[in-house]
Amino acid sequence: MIGTLRRNLWIALLPALCCSLLFTTSSSAAQAQKTGKLIVNIAGIHNAEGNIRVAVRTDETTIAAAQIATIDPKTLTAEAVFDNLPEGDYGVAVIHDENKNEKLDFTDFGMPTEGYGHSNNPPKRQGAPDFNETKFVFSAPTTTITINLIYWP
Description:
Layout: H1 2-32, E1 35-43, E2 51-57, E3 63-69, E4 78-86, E5 88-97, E6 116-118, H2 131-134, E7 136-138, E8 142-148
Parallel strand pairs: 1-8
Antiparallel strand pairs: 1-4, 2-3, 2-5, 5-6, 5-7
C-alpha cells in the first residue's frame, strides 16, 4: 500500500518537476543573454560624398550586424546605432564608400582610395589589422565607441 502510494505520488509529481526544470533552465539562459545598444561614432570623414558602411563583427569573417550611415555634411561625422546587440566581444569595421559601390576601392598598387577605420583605431599601415587588435568588450546597457577614419594620399 505504501509502495503504491509512493509510486503514484512520483507519477503525479514527475511532470511538474520536469516543467519546473525546463522553466528554470530557459529562464537562466534568457537572463544570461543580456542585450544593449552599441553606438558607433565616425569622425575624420574627408567629404560628404557617398555614405559610411559599418560592420559589427564577432570574428574576422563573421558579420553580426551591418548598417549604412549618412554623413552629416556640416560636421563631416556619422553615427550608427545597433540596438539589441548581445553582450560579448566585437570588432567594428568602417569604410567611407564615396562612390556607393558597396566596397572599399584600391589603386593598382593596393592602396585604399577611400577612407576606412576599425574599432580601437589601430595605426595606419599596409594591410588590415588583426581582429584581436580591433576587438572590444560590448556590455549592456550602452557602449559608445569612436572610429577615426584613415585616408591614404
